[in-house]
What we know:
2 domains; binds magnesium ion; binds acetyl coenzyme *A; disordered C terminus; Double Stranded RNA Binding Domain; 16 helices; three-stranded antiparallel sheet; 38% helix; TIM Barrel; elongated
Amino acid sequence: MSQKDxxxxxxxxxRDGEQSPGASMTLDEKVRxxxxxxxxxxxxxxxxxxxxxQGDFESVRAVARSVxxxxxxxxxxxxxxxxDRCGEALADAESAxxxxxIATSPIHMQQKLRxxxxxxxxxxxxxxxRARKWTDNVEFSCExxxxxxxxxxxxxxxxxxxxGARTINIPDTVGYNxxxxxxxxxxxxxxxxxxxxxxxxxxxxxxxxxxxxxNSLEAVINGARQVECTIxxxxxxxxxxxxxxxxMAVRTRQDVFPCxxxxxxxxxVPASRLVSSITGFAVQPNKAIVGANAFAHESxxxxxxxxxxxxxxxxxxAEDVGWKTNKMVMGKHSGRNAxxxxxxxxxxxxxTNEELxxxxxxxxxxxxxxxxxxxxxxxxxxSETQHEKEDDRFELVYLKTYTETGETPSxxxxxxVDGQEQQTTAIGSGPVDATFKAxxxxxxxxxxxxxxxxxxxxxxxxxxxxxxVRLEKGGRIVNGLGSDTDxxxxxxxxYVSAASKLLANTPxxxxxxxxx
Length: 516
Ligand SMILES: CC(=O)SCCNC(=O)CCNC(=O)[C@H](O)C(C)(C)COP(=O)(O)OP(=O)(O)OC[C@H]1O[C@@H](n2cnc3c(N)ncnc32)[C@H](O)[C@@H]1OP(=O)(O)O
Ligand SMILES: CC(C)C(=O)C(=O)O
Ligand SMILES: [Mg+2]
């Protein structure tokens, strides 16, 4: 059994997270997220602010009824009606907490609450006592503690604990603090408040300066034993400290932190995806832990290191946070080792170094043109190397497409086929479809179109369109690339290029393809 303290994880995705402009959630969505947080084994789920609206009340009540393994918490101002409404919403919870708060910074007391510091202490004490009528599990927050005077904070908190608060939360409401200062605040509060040992000290950090996680972790090092956080760092303005980053920092650096969480980390990525899909807030690819690139390696030196020993470039295991595996992304920065290994995984073995070097050179050429190289691209590349490169059999000479609302799109095409110009027309469901049908009439590949993708190479409506066409016939796959500012012409070039490759047939290398 570990001798370490438990770090309580308090998730506020459904309350502070929902305060992100545009992140409102329906009752059903909140219950789905709450169930996912329960699977994560979050200790406390702050489900909402019941007195904000009837909808919020019902959502908190629904979460309280459907989650059994986590404590359900509701937020209330230091106002009786807020606290009572919160108590009612939580009535059916297996374990309930009322979280009441009032601001303690000079600016908030003077300008917002328009209360004297003495009145605020009285309101805090009255609020905690009122909440204690509903439950023993009461949390009190000094809103804007990060800009409050330390002596005054000590006074308010001592009284709140005396009134019955069992968790004292120190929010950096506006994300103003820096780690050393915030850690020192926590250390001093714990040292100076005479009854500090009767409460768990918590922190709630906002990310206005990008320091929410760093501030929270410094607070933990200095004695805080609850962190308030959200999935994907969702929350008011720049958001809150992100749950996944806090949890994985504490877990990964057990040499630094004197405590541990009970979070079931393989549920992190599923929870992140759920929150992202419900709120519509995409996770940036380079976001720590849950970003698509968090465990992806593209550069050759890293890939080579990873293939020799994963720990050369990874401090966590992708599987431990819910990814299936880490990823080796094939792109223009990849090296021979990763290229060869990936192809071996696809069942393709090179007999000689020359073959490897030749295929690798063509891979680099392709990677310079195409942003992402998929397995199918590698297969196509190898498949192409098995045939002598001949001069292109087909060449686009002229293309005119016709589209008009309510009319069937058509294409008029001239191609050079083995040096001879040939013309045709075709109709289709769109200009690209009509063009492909016209080309097929002249080149007659009999293939299946496996992929048609368009990338804008640069930004703006005048950008070059880069089109990839992948054709398959009898197990053989080829890619054709075409670029033009007109995407229909780019598409035609790509199809013509793929058709030329598919119908070229002289063997070129001795690649041994297995299972391809
Ligand atoms: C830092 C945070 O995240 S705090 C939580 C933020 N969450 C929310 O605000 C939840 C959504 N809010 C709401 O739906 C509404 O603001 C309500 C229902 C809470 C209140 O609505 P209204 O009664 O119309 O008040 P309004 O929002 O205009 O102003 C807030 C009032 O609460 C007072 N107040 C603010 N915080 C507190 C507090 N902790 N304790 C007591 N009073 C407070 C303000 O001084 C102001 O009072 P005033 O009307 O006498 O000037
Ligand atoms: C209500 C409190 C805890 C809050 O969200 C904040 O101060 O940021
Ligand atoms: Mg907040």
